[in-house]
TrEMBL record:
Chain segments annotated as transmembrane: none
Domain PH: 1-38, 57-164
Keywords: Cytoplasm
InterPro entries for the chain: PH-like_dom_sf, PH_domain, Syntrophin, Syntrophin_4th
Pfam families (UniProt xref): Syntrophin_4th
Compartmental location: Cytoplasm
Entry's Gene Ontology molecular function annotations: structural molecule activity
UniProt name for this protein: Syntrophin gamma 1
Length: 299
């Protein structure tokens, strides 16, 4: 149905289905409501951010529908409120109102250890069209849907922005690993690249720049095989490491690579500087002007 929608308040009160004579009339109302929701959300985020330090600022937050695990029926979705704040993605049943509410999230995940992905046609699980997944540090996939295609773009940009800012803040991350039966440490460093060292002596065994990584593969369980190019001989050098937290490491490496690529885009870097100054990312360039069957309204 393209000429109807419903508004659901944060306390669960529903307007019921509001139907219009034409899709154009419905669209006019949807655009007005969407604009109001966007303005209220931005205003609310600015107020909340006054109570948080710079490294814990909210980047974006809003309603989504989460597909319940092992559910094969389209109706088995439940509303969730997601928030990208500081170093984490938070998942709530209801929007956080007080500072204490942030400590009571259903789940929270470290941003650079998860993977965001928009689902294309072949990846969709059911008839819902505007969906994305988040793969956690344990390899679990969570599936979410939104009402509009433009909302997908907003969430994608929000994840990119939040992850970039966190990688820029921490600069490096070290993971324990095993190489040739010896306990090692692998540091992913924003400036230097990859550094592998002996866990006991701290002696550096090898280091490579990001640009020297020419390929990699993993067994889906614990092992990653890196293919680095030697700067002098140009030959390929293989390094196999074993981790207890494979997906966290893979996602972290991806996050650092994405941040390095983003640094090559002057427009992206400039937008991040503006976002940090303003206290809220510049996501307004993407507008929701498409038709939708319903909206969720966070008051």
């Amino acid at each position: 149905m393209k000429n109807a929608f419903q508004v659901i308040a944060v306390d669960g009160v529903c307007s019921g289905v509001v139907q219009f004579p034409t899709a154009e009339d419905c669209l006019d109302w949807l655009q007005a409501i969407s604009g109001n929701i966007s303005s209220l959300t931005k205003h609310n985020v600015k107020k909340i951010n006054r109570n948080f330090p710079v490294n814990q600022q909210i980047i974006y937050m809003g309603w989504v529908d989460e597909k319940e695990q092992d559910s094969v029926q389209d109706r088995m979705y439940s509303p969730k409120f997601l928030a990208l704040r500081g170093s984490s993605l938070f998942k709530f049943s209801a929007p956080p109102v007080t500072t204490w509410d942030w400590t009571r999230a259903e789940k929270s995940f470290t941003l650079y250890e998860i993977m965001f992905k928009i689902l294309k046609d072949n990846d969709l699980l059911d008839k819902r069209r505007h969906c994305f997944s988040v793969q956690t540090e344990s390899g679990e996939d969570m599936f979410f849907s939104v009402e509009l295609d433009c909302e997908l773009l907003i969430w994608e940009k929000a994840f990119q922005t939040a992850t970039f800012l966190e990688v820029e803040r921490i600069q490096c991350k070290t993971y324990a690993c095993i190489m040739e039966s010896h306990l090692m440490g692998l540091t992913v460093d924003f400036g230097m690249g990859f550094v592998c060292f002996d866990a006991a002596s701290k002696a550096v065994l090898w280091r490579y720049k990001f640009s020297q990584l020419k390929g990699s593969s993993d067994d889906g369980k614990s092992k990653i095989k890196f293919l680095f190019q030697n700067q002098d001989s140009k030959s390929i050098e293989a390094k196999e490491l074993e981790f207890s937290n494979l997906f966290a490491v893979l996602h972290c490496i991806h996050a650092f690579f994405a941040a390095k690529v983003a640094c090559l885009d002057p427009m992206f870097v400039e937008s991040q500087g503006t976002a940090t100054t303003a206290g809220f990312p510049s996501l307004s360039a993407i507008s929701c002007n498409s038709q939708t069957p319903k909206l969720k309204y966070a008051t």
